[in-house]
Amino acid sequence: AQSVAQPEDQVNVAEGNPLTVKCTYSVSGNPYLFWYVQYPNRGLQFLLKYITGDNLVKGSYGFEAEFNKSQTSFHLKKPSALVSDSALYFCAVRDVVMDSNYQLIWGAGTKLIIKP
Amino acid sequence: DVKVTQSSRYLVKRTGEKVFLECVQDMDHENMFWYRQDPGLGLRLIYFSYDVKMKEKGDIPEGYSVSREKKERFSLILESASTNQTSMYLCASSLAQDRTQNIQYFGAGTRLSVL
Asked: How many CA atoms lie within 13 A of A4 on its CB side?
């Protein structure tokens, strides 16, 4: 069965420190992987994606993510956290083999709190 | 920029009422989606539509219906609201030609409370 796991409900990081938000997935074939962010009282915004090619992908607001096929992971990272990065982060995957009519499978979300 | 507009940010309804949630997108996207977002459960797909008058059930369609009479508008209908439908509802759209990348654009959400 296809699934996405975000093992941490909440991640706390001090401003200026590096941050990592974890995501692992399970699909039948090759995955398309996405990160979205939801700021308070706002809709979800696309952050970055992995489709193919370089395993390290860069996205908006200085975020990047590394696709690791052997560990079936797609962790979100940023070298130096800002207080304004505090938000809810969602990982999502699409199974290319299943090709389920554009549907994405979503993780439960991780609340990122950056403390000054 | 893509704009997805949901007609209400907050709604309070009574059990048994028929509820309409409206969503409009301005980028001529073929695909539109309705999700509900609950803490710890992520986003769950209720229905999606890939063309006018076309719809497909998502993971949790029970108690909901949808209508897409025009390309830019996708409505979610709660036929008889129940307290377990209290949730945040998110509308999204995406471009059909963007099949491989599948980027979805979201509205700000409607927080529905059913009393």
From this structure: 29
Q: In the 8-state DSSP scheme, what is residue A105? A: E
Within 8 A of A104 by CB-CB distance, chain B residues are 102, 104
At A14, the amino acid letter reads: A
Residue B110 near residue A41 (C-beta atoms within 8 A): no
Average pLDDT over residues B3-24: 95
Residues in chain B: 115
Residues of B in contact with A102 (CB under 8 A): 31, 48, 50, 94, 96, 99, 102
- CA dist list (Å): A60 to A93, A101, B77: 18, 26, 35
* Of A64, A84, A71, the residue nearest A20 (C-alpha): A64
Encoded tokens for A12:
């706390």
pLDDT at B101 (0 to 100):
63
Question: Which three-class secondary structure state does DSSP give residue A42?
Answer: coil
| Predicted local confidence at residue A30, as pLDDT | 82
Burial class (CB in 10 A: 0-12, 13-18, 19+), B87: buried
Strand partners, B93: B32, B105
Contacts of residue B94 in chain A, CB cutoff 8 Å? 102
Contact A22, A7 (CB under 8 A): yes
A46, A101, A106 ranked by CB distance to B42: nearest = A106
* H or E, element range at B11: strand B10-13
The stretch A46-58 carries a mean pLDDT of 92
Of A34, A46, A109, the CB nearest to B42: A109
